[in-house]
Amino acid sequence: MRRRDVAIDVGVAGLVFWLTLAILADGGLGAATPDDRRLDLLGVLLAAAATLPLVARRRWPLAVYLATATASLVLLAFGYTLDLAIGTAVAAYSVAVAHGGDRRPVRRWVALLAVAAFVPSMTVLYAVLGVRLAGIGTEMVTTGAIFVSLWLVGDRIRLRQERIGALEEQARRAEREMLRERTLAAVQERARIARDLHDSAGHAINVILVQAGAARLLHQRDPERSRQAIGTVEEVARGLIGEIDRLVRALRDDGTAELGVPAGPAALDELLARHEESGLRIVATERGVRRALPPSVAWSAYRILQEALTNAARHGRGSAEVGMLFGDEAMEITVANPVARDGGGGAPVAGGHGIVGMRERATLLGGSLDTADGGGTFRLHARLPYHSLMRADDPVEWPADVAATGRPPPAGSERAP
């Protein structure tokens, strides 16, 4: 139970206790008669028993009701004038909130009968004490109406609390489902990146094999070119090790085969051209000197730009501004597209799967991806560091047989210089 609820219950119990003492001290709500018993120590104790248990009304509502109702009837039996049993009325309201819709039929009917029996019990007690029932008819009807009203109000409050609880649980389930979907999207994107890494490693190993074969063939005929080939092998291997070290630590799931994505700046130009042919108006600017990109950076740049342009076509207003920066340490991509203000279209949701996938790719490369939606424009900026990865475009003059087959010859097949 929260401290706020405890404080409220203590305050309610104290207030009801004070009001009950005031009623008893004044001889009831009407004019006092000589037969009325004045407030004394016993009356104070009984008043406390009829009100102070309200402190625990949330935890044990039915027990608190029975205690306050019994104490109130004892007050009447001893001749105290208690025209309105406030403590019992508040306890009856708590019983309605707690047990009015109880799924256990026995508990629900016991609670209802206990509350409904209070006014008849008062009537029987007054008759036993010799009080003329005709003179207290109005009091009994009023008390009965109060208890019925409190039960109905308590039951409505219970229904409202149940609806609020159901809505809160639905919101929690939706949040958990959204988190699960985002996690699944990130895992799927990591699996795709793992397949890209597989393609990158396969490409690098093929380069190493060909260069190693060339170095073996040229070792005696052209030592200088042989050393160049060996240097290329070393550079490609070092880059591959760095790439695997960065990416494979975050990847654990296997995936199915997937067609490779075109790598390199030329593929980005083709991607822009395809989107322009599909109707998207693109204004592209480029800064820096184009350079060979590591496979992971090239493929991530391609997919990020592809997803950004798809979002611009789907959620935007038919145009986009694309900026590409080939820096010394990283490649940066910026895509900005206007979005509709009338609710007919808008920016993609920041937590959507597309944004999750793009951010996952940039993060695994040690970079970043930021989005902003303001002023009628959705802007995306990605930074993809190179990390001094392998460069596979250093040309090497290969022997004619190697160039023709694309594979190094088997060992022992070298021709004499």
From TrEMBL:
TM segment ranges: 7-25, 84-102, 109-128, 134-153
Ranges in coiled-coil conformation: 157-184
Signal transduction histidine kinase subgroup 3 dimerisation and phosphoacceptor domain segment(s): 189-254
Catalytic class of the enzyme: transferase
Keyword annotations of the record: ATP-binding, Coiled coil, Kinase, Membrane, Nucleotide-binding, Phosphoprotein, Transferase, Transmembrane, Transmembrane helix, Two-component regulatory system
InterPro entries: DUF7134, HATPase_C_sf, Sensor_HK_TwoCompSys, Sig_transdc_His_kin_sub3_dim/P
Recorded GO MF terms: kinase activity
Assigned EC number: 2.7.13.3
Swiss-Prot/TrEMBL catalytic activity: ATP + protein L-histidine = ADP + protein N-phospho-L-histidine
Domain DUF7134: 1-161
PANTHER family in alphabetical order: NITRATE/NITRITE SENSOR PROTEIN NARX-RELATED, NITRATE_NITRITE SENSOR PROTEIN NARQ
Protein name per UniProt: histidine kinase
Naturally occurring in which organism (per UniProt): Plantactinospora solaniradicis
